[in-house]
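Researcher: I need the complex structure. Ligand is NAP. Inputs:
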Amino acid sequence: MLIDASMTHRVAIVGAGPSGFYAADGLLRSRPDLRIDLIDRLPTPFGLVRAGVAPDHQGTKAIVRQFERLLAQPDVRFAGNVEIGRDLSWEELQAGYDAVIVAIGMAIDRKLGVPGEELPFVWGSWKFVAWLNGHPDFRQGPDLSAVKKVAVIGNGNVALDVARVLAKSADEMAKSDIVSEAGAAIAAAPLTDIYVIGRRGPEQASFTGNELAEMGRLSRAVAVADPAALAVEVPPGDPTPERLRKARNLEILKGFARNEPGSKPITVHFVFNRPTAAIEPGEFDLVITCIGYEGVAFPKGEGVFPVGWAKRGPSGTIPTNRAESHAVAQQVIAWLKERDPKSGPDPMPLSVDLAGWHRIDKAEVAAGARQGRPRVKLTDWKALLDTAEG
Ligand code: NAP
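Model: Output:
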């Protein structure tokens, strides 16, 4: 049966990151006739996968191949360089589409709220990782030229990402897509000590085992911990998966405690039970807070469906979003079932479309191939937009 496109529901997904793509996937599985616009304020899709996943974790970034297949669907449009609130208001969006899915994530560093936090050597992990990843809004990184001692505050996987990328050698980063300036700055920095600092004990850390174990396999860095801090039990009341995760963390940390500080050029110290009351110059040359994220407000109400971090806060790995976004997609489908498709002109002011993104992608991959790397990212807004235009 031929479907009259003018009679098909239109869904806007704001935010072309993992939760947005999984929502599109969930929608199309039940309603392949839907017209879906995946909107992003950047000229590039993939959100956190491009800007947040550590540049040396290319295996995690490989998920974009699945997302590209969704973008290739005939009724899915990529609408890059479209900012809601600038190019189109939320009201216009709600008026023009039959449903709006909000997949904007959380891209503001949570604050410690302590004196000294505004000092120039204190960085939030979002800003820092966005710099490593070539986000066009974060092209200026910290000056690492005299940085010997770094404090990484937080005991989650982002803290491990930050500590690991700083600790890895240039050889270990060679096959990553870290931006060249950041890679060169880290390689040239006189780093000697990285302190990963938790405010609670090791049995409360939210690291996952594979990521923690990776810290024990670095060529120029040795991971160490104070054995006295590790004489703790996994909380018996925790659910079984949590107890298993925490027990594995403790085992790995006990292995680190047997290592010799200073036996490699950089020592990564895992420090526990050390809340940060204030940040003062002197102790560390650089402090990177990895303590979670906040989001910006968006309209809540009829026909608006948040997903991913915008819905549940900054937790969970990328695959966590799949089941949740699929469940939200079912809510959207139930909502649409009760409504006739809206008629009216195409509300989307298209700027960078799929072909534009593919021109950027091709240019980046070609530049990467010349260096034996997955890609060399374009980090300048003008270069991105010019390349998209072709
Ligand atoms: P997270 O796992 O929630 O860790 C945040 C850390 O910040 C916790 O250790 C928390 O300690 C600490 N913290 C919060 N407020 C603090 C304060 N005022 N002072 C000191 N410490 C404070 O979050 P994340 O590391 O930002 O990661 C976000 C999500 O992305 C997580 O689900 C993570 O697993 C995921 N992720 C996954 C990967 C991967 O799979 N490779 C990589 C990166 C991120 P308390 O526990 O005491 O609150």
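Model: Summary of the prediction. The longest helix spans residues 240-257.
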